[in-house]
Amino acid sequence: MIFHSHWRGKIVQAREKFATQISSDLLAELRNQAKEEGRQIQSLVEEAIAALIEERRHGKARTHVMSAYQKSHFRFAPLYDKLAK
After folding, report:
1. Concatenated DSSP letters for 22-78?
2. Where are the domains of the chain?
3. pTM of the model
4. Which of 63, 30, 26, 28 lies closest to 45, judged by CA?
5. Of 8, 9, 3, 11, nearest to 42 (Cα)?
6. What is the pLDDT at residue 10?
7. Phi and psi at residue 68, in whole multiples of 5°?
């Protein structure tokens, strides 16, 4: 079934329901995360799926991962050079 979101009379984005199963522990963590962030579970699931697809489509690390790597490389470049020898 497809649902359409409306804002000021315009269709914003089509949504489709689907069902899946995940571990009880993972679902509990997801519920806690949603509660902590004041968001709906579907919002977190959609964000996670979009990030996974983007990562696999481009084969690139996420922005925050690359940022952390670059900071580490800048800070520890001499050490990395020594370790490489």
Report:
1. --HHHHHHHHHHHHHHT--HHHHHHHHHHHHHHHHHHT---HHHHHHHHHHHHHHHH
2. 2-60
3. 0.56
4. 30
5. 3
6. 62
7. -65, -40
